[in-house]
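USER:
I wish I could look at a protein chain and see how it folds. I am handing you a single protein, as its sequence and its fold in token form. As I understand it, each token names a local backbone shape. I hope you can help me see how the letters and the tokens relate. The protein I mean follows directly.
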Amino acid sequence: VQLQASGGGLVQAGGSLRLSCAASGRTFSNYVMGWFRQAPGKERELVASIRWSGGSTYYSDSVKGRFTISRDNANKTVYLQMNSLKPEDTAVYYCAAAKAPSSTGWGVGYDYWGQGTQVTVSS
């Protein structure tokens, strides 16, 4: 499975961006797709995640109400709509895929990773 992330860029605080993650290769209906981010000097954190089947979602508290994760099953693409962006959202964003949901939580068990896309929010 290959993941191709795109859509990052520079935006002013309060603005919006939409990230896309296109999956290619063999995928399965019980995959879990996630968006992570890593800011300089900080650990990588899970931002949002979605199950291909059923569409249940998870959001970190820091983005809840501002970000929306969605999927297009036919095109094997996952999106992260980011609204009301803040300077603290600045990071490299990565998409990832897990072959199955983890019993220990949304943020672990990812098998495939895409390249990062930089999101910079200016104040």
Q: What stands out?
A: The chain has a mean pLDDT of 94.
